[in-house]
Amino acid sequence: MGRLIVIEGLDGAGKRTLSRGITEELTARGRTAATAAFPRYTEDVHAELVAEALRGQHGDLGSSVHGMAVLYALDRRGAADSLRADLDTHDVVLLDRYVASNAAYGAARLHQGADGDFVSWIRDLEITRFGLPEPDLQILLRVPAEVASGRAEHRERTESDRRRDRFESDTPLQQRCAEVYAELAESGWWTPWVVVDGATDVDFGALVDEHVLG
What we know:
This protein is of the alpha/beta class.
């Protein structure tokens, strides 16, 4: 059975770069790794609805914190069997966002903390009711919200397929989300966490040695 490693953080934190660096380090060591990213906009109808709602379609769906959270959760539920199959055949499965993203962004939208009702509801929905695979480790790639925002703006200008959605361009929301993420990591929400400084160069070898491979 492989290890399920989740990378969490704000848009622009560098999650994709971190996933690529860890994968390359594992491959160089002769280990196998599978990767996935949520939401799966091109693979799951629930994620498609999320993308459309973020562009203002489907009436007031985008303004419903719980409605959007259910769609995010159903996307992951639909991927659960695939994740389990990957864990059976790979040493490591790396995920770009997972359940904690739903908890952090929803709580931030409602101006709640990690100890609020929304995070508890997400636990009941995705972890208890849906029984999603449990991560061995959750990595918080932490950067200041203004740094993440600047990176996301640059990416939007230079990559035609990386347009920011309404949540990603909401700087106060991103700042609140960063606070909730920090609280989740500090409390060890669901499974163990490690915090990585995303504002500096990451030592992928050390990260793999100390945390990814256990």
